[in-house]
Amino acid sequence: MTEYWNAFLQWLHRVGLHPDREAVEQAARQAGDAMASAGGAVADTAGKALSGMDMASLLALAAALGWASGFRLYIVVFLVGLLGATGLVVLPGGLHVLEHPALLFASGSMLCVEFLADKIPGVDSLWDLLQSVLRVPAGAALAAGVFGADNATMATVAALMGGTLAATSQAAKTSTRALINTSPEPFSNVGASLVEDTTAVGAIWLALAHPLVFGVALVVVVIAMWVVTWMLWRFVRGAVRRLRGWFGAEADALPKT
């Protein structure tokens, strides 16, 4: 417990907050003594946490951030930043900015707004429409941030992948919600929204814990999303054609003067 508290104090000191300067300095001295006595074991562990994310792990994390951002952007930003701020995960690349208290507060506030808006029939579709211009570029930026500016080539590849996955999940979410909103009862909206909340969190956890399993699951889910979106798009087009046919028949039935 002391180790986590010292890490938290050091993080506050790093971002410019000094609630107890003496405690921070004392924690830093204790951390330095512990590292010296252990022969650099703490530094070795941190290095393993960062270098242990090989290319497959980094790509899995980038894919998870991009895909989950397509339907739950703010929970992705807040959760990843919280994991980094608490020291549970050593964030790679340019994702360290997500740990800043201001960004955590902003993403947490927007998370609360989205959590409520996404569970109200009609409001959820309007919210999706407003957020559609933000989720795809944000998903691309988060995916690119996994590799940071030091690896421009892989950051570009990750951005393209993250943006495409965000667009895929955004299209699937929007089309399925439009179909769900044809039902007068609100329980289906709440259920679908809770599933999306859980899926976004689960995707990030699976990408961090089991990147290869996540990669296989993501391929299956993305293919299923393409199929569902295509089928629903055909359904929407068919419904529009039927409406036009009904209005055309009614116009023909009217007496001509």
**Averaged pLDDT:** 78
Low-confidence stretches: 35-51
Q: Report how far the terminal alpha carbons are from each other.
A: 87 Å
Helix content bin: over 70%
Instruction: List the total number of helices.
Output: 10
> How many individual domains?
2
Helix/strand/pairing category: mainly alpha
- Major sheet summary line: none
Number of strands: 0
Protein name: DUF4126 domain-containing protein
Domain DUF4126: 59-228
Keywords: Membrane, Transmembrane, Transmembrane helix
Transmembrane segments: 49-68, 73-95, 212-233
Walk me through this protein's architecture.
- Helices cover 79% and strands 0% of the residues.
- The chain has 257 residues and is mainly alpha-helical.
- The chain has 2 domains: 2-48, no CATH class; 53-245, no CATH class.
- The N and C termini lie far apart (87 Å).
- Keywords: Membrane, Transmembrane, Transmembrane helix.
- Pfam families: DUF4126.
Summarize the entry for a quick read.
This protein has 257 residues and is an all-alpha fold.
Map the helices and strands.
Layout: H1 2-14, H2 21-37, H3 41-51, H4 55-69, H5 73-85, H6 101-117, H7 123-145, H8 152-180, H9 187-209, H10 211-253
Keywords: Membrane, Transmembrane, Transmembrane helix
Domain DUF4126: 59-228
Pfam families: DUF4126 (PF13548)
Keywords:
257 residues, 2 domains, mainly alpha, single chain, globular
